Amino acid sequence: MDNEEILDDIGALVEEERSLRQRTGGLLLEERARLAALEVRLDQCWDLLRQRRAKEEFGEDPDTATLRPAAEVESYRN
Question: Rounded to an integer, what distance in angstroms lies between the CA atom of residue 59 and that of residue 48?
Fold first, then answer.
């Protein structure tokens, strides 16, 4: 997956997230679970894109970047 494909995925995930967040009257249990999954997947995609860009910047092969497990990405601190 290249940077453009990752950015396309991010765009689609953000659109779905916005759609869920804009619903009035609250979300069903399944929708809340989907929203949580979207947030995790977005974090993973952004992390993968940052890895790829860093590798490119330092002359490494960006295709060696890997999608990190959700537990790892979600445990990062700001």
Answer: 17
